[in-house]
């Protein structure tokens, strides 16, 4: 009889024998491969934490004890063991989130899943328990080795050591990689610990010694292994990195030996002081296709064949935005040796791999350290280079101060390429790139472009890297690059006119890939006799003067953007129109100021009113129900 269906909560694990726990781990891996291959999701990270998650829930009493995951994409096993075993709609509307979600379970704590934050959460929770007298509650933070490259982790460690009278356990899940192999001095140190011959030889020798004593000897070996790991680590000087922080160090521990993990975690639990347990795991453990994937160990997959790991989606001629950007940047870099790329532990997802392969010394991976990346970029610009920091839009918010005070204030020529801008879909509220347009507009001197297709991406990237005295931004959505949308004409200040109606009734300002919705809106309204002009400003910020002139000649202006409405491009255009004395009515269409759930991009756009049919209907109602001014003659200037 399968064991996994009998686990309705963490306490059900207590009745299982060691042999049954081994069976359960195997069942969980089979379940993950079978389920995630059908839905897509983070497969490799979860295959690597099966035994660790089992051990955590056997040693600690969630939710009385709190477990914080950093990052949350490694929480699938945690979901299974806390009663959530319907993965049929994982990361789809109405199904389980791909990250911890408080609405799903009392066992979930942190939903944001932005790396390197868990220790600060754990520090705060454990301090609160100390102050409120809840001294019987433990707090456990599971942090990946990649997250240790983020400065926030070390700020938290410094504060945790400042007051060590707390029941706080830090588990470092060390698999040597975040998306790809973890980089930097810390990664090299952990790799040395992971592979040190002295440690391996002593571990192997001690096991052989106890094996010679037969079954009793093996029992003693299992029972003392947690302590043995602590002894071996001290002998090998592995704890020196944490000794000055007054944090007890245990490890390294085999992250796929459940008994050893339990022993180490119980030892940590009983210290009643901050303890760090160093656990060595394998990303993609137990699944051959993942282990053979040197790039990222199947970090995240789409729908795949569970036997081979081969994607089941049909081959397509469509191009991904990251791929097109990567090719364009490489082409520019071959002509301009000032160009360098920067990534925060995401070389391949952001399209910098081609540049790194062609010019290895011209791509810098800083780890999960966006703040450092931005300020370092300012330094690179000061030194005569033009850095291009390619990063997910949702993660740039972590470095807004550096964008303001280090780049913009110093008029540094730095280009930010924001991937997955706008609605991303299945990854949910923490990963939608919907705040960048509103957030970055407050930066003095900032110039923001939003390409609508591959051709404009190439043009705008070349224009961006030519700017040497101010920051520039290109925002790229998730998914494939649409078919090129040609312009009827390009105005003197770079605005593209995509279509003109028979009359100047409505001016639609479509930002980036929303150009396709804008053109469909024009078609729908044209069938009702409404004349629509659709423009793509190309550079959304600052507002082009020609947009003010066009607004003055139309009865209604409508802006369409896939960023949050509040403080978006529509707001900026409204302010500039008012400053120019143009009183044309303006309708700002964008995303609500809310945390949007995980769902398909099309579903979220539809619910947010960002479909062409919905927009056209709203415009028709506004034209019919509002006394709008008549169209101003084309030769009449704006006031």
Automatic annotation (TrEMBL):
Binding site for thiamine diphosphate: 73, 113-115, 146-147, 175, 287, 370
Record keywords: Isoprene biosynthesis, Magnesium, Metal-binding, Thiamine biosynthesis, Thiamine pyrophosphate, Transferase
Coiled coil location: none
Annotated catalysed reactions: D-glyceraldehyde 3-phosphate + pyruvate + H(+) = 1-deoxy-D-xylulose 5-phosphate + CO2
Residues binding Mg(2+), per UniProt: 145, 175
Pathway participation: Metabolic intermediate biosynthesis; 1-deoxy-D-xylulose 5-phosphate biosynthesis; 1-deoxy-D-xylulose 5-phosphate from D-glyceraldehyde 3-phosphate and pyruvate: step 1/1
Transketolase-like pyrimidine-binding domain mapped to chain residues: 319-483
GO molecular function terms listed in the Swiss-Prot or TrEMBL record: 1-deoxy-D-xylulose-5-phosphate synthase activity
SUPFAM superfamilies: Thiamin diphosphate-binding fold (THDP-binding), TK C-terminal domain-like
InterPro entries linked: Dxylulose-5-P_synthase, THDP-binding, Transketo_C/PFOR_II, Transketolase-like_Pyr-bd, Transketolase_BS, Transketolase_C, Transketolase_CS
Cofactor(s) in the UniProt record: thiamine diphosphate; Mg(2+)
Cofactor: binding details: Binds 1 thiamine pyrophosphate per subunit.
EC number: 2.2.1.7
CDD domains, sorted: TPP_DXS (cd02007), TPP_PYR_DXS_TK_like (cd07033)
Family: Belongs to the transketolase family. DXPS subfamily.
Subunit note: Homodimer.
HAMAP family on file: DXP_synth
Protein name per its UniProtKB record: 1-deoxy-D-xylulose-5-phosphate synthase
Species of origin: Amnibacterium endophyticum
Gene that produces this protein: dxs
């Amino acid at each position: 009889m399968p064991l996994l269906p009998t686990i309705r909560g963490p306490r059900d694990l207590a009745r299982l024998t060691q042999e049954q726990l081994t069976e359960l781990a195997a069942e969980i891996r089979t379940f993950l491969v079978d389920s995630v291959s059908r839905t897509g999701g983070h497969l490799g990270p979860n295959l690597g934490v099966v035994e660790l998650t089992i051990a955590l829930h056997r040693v600690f009493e969630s939710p009385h004890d709190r477990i914080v995951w950093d990052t949350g994409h490694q929480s699938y096993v945690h979901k299974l063991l806390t009663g959530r075993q319907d993965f049929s709609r994982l990361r789809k509307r109405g199904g389980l989130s791909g990250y911890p979600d408080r609405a799903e379970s009392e066992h979930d704590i942190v939903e944001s899943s932005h790396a390197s934050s868990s220790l600060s959460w754990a520090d705060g929770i454990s301090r609160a328990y100390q102050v409120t007298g809840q001294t019987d509650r433990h707090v456990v933070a599971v942090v990946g080795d990649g997250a240790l490259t983020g400065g926030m982790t070390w700020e938290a460690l410094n504060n945790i050591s400042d007051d060590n009278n707390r029941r706080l356990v830090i588990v470092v899940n060390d698999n040597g990689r975040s998306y790809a192999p973890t980089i930097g001095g810390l990664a090299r140190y952990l790799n040395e610990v992971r592979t040190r011959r002295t440690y391996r030889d002593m571990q192997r020798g001690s096991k052989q010694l106890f094996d010679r004593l037969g079954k009793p000897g093996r029992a003693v070996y299992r029972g003392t292994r947690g302590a043995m790991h602590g002894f071996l680590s001290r002998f090998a000087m592995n704890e020196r990195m944490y000794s000055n922080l007054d944090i007890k160090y245990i490890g390294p521990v085999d992250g796929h030996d459940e008994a050893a993990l339990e022993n180490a975690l119980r030892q940590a639990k009983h210290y009643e002081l901050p303890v760090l347990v160093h656990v060595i795991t394998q990303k993609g453990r137990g699944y051959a296709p993942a282990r053979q994937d040197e790039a990222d160990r199947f970090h995240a997959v789409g729908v795949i064949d569970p036997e081979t790991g081969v994607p089941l989606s049909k081959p397509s001629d469509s191009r991904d935005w990251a791929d097109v950007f990567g090719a364009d940047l490489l082409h520019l870099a071959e002509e301009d040796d000032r160009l360098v790329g920067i990534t925060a532990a995401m070389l391949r997802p952001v399209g910098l791999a081609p540049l790194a392969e062609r010019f290895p010394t011209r791509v810098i991976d800083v780890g999960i350290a966006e703040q450092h990346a931005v300020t370092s970029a300012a330094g690179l610009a000061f030194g005569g280079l033009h850095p291009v920091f390619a990063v997910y839009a949702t993660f740039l918010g972590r470095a807004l101060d550096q964008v303001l005070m280090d780049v913009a204030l110093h008029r540094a020529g730095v280009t930010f390429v924001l991937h997955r801008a706008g609605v991303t879909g299945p990854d949910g509220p923490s990963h939608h790139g919907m705040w960048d347009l509103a957030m970055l507009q407050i930066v003095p001197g900032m110039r923001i472009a939003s390409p609508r297709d591959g051709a404009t991406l190439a043009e705008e990237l070349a224009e961006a890297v030519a700017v040497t005295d101010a920051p520039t931004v290109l925002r790229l959505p998730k998914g494939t690059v649409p078919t090129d949308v040609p312009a009827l004409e390009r105005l003197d200040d770079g605005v593209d006119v995509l279509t003109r109606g028979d009359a100047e009734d409505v001016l639609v300002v479509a930002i980036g890939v929303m150009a396709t919705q804008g053109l469909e809106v024009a078609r729908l309204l044209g069938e009702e006799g409404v004349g629509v002009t659709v423009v793509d400003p190309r550079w959304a910020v600052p507002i082009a003067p020609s947009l003010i002139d066009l607004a003055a000649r139309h009865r209604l202006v409508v802006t369409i953007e896939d960023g949050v409405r509040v403080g978006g491009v529509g707001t900026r255009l409204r302010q500039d129109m008012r400053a120019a004395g143009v009183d044309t009515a303006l309708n700002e269409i964008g995303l609500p100021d809310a945390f949007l759930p995980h769902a398909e991009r099309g579903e979220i756009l539809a619910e947010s009113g960002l479909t062409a049919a919905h927009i056209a209907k709203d415009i028709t109602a506004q034209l019919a129900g509002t006394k709008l001014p008549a169209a101003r003659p084309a030769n009449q200037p704006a006031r």
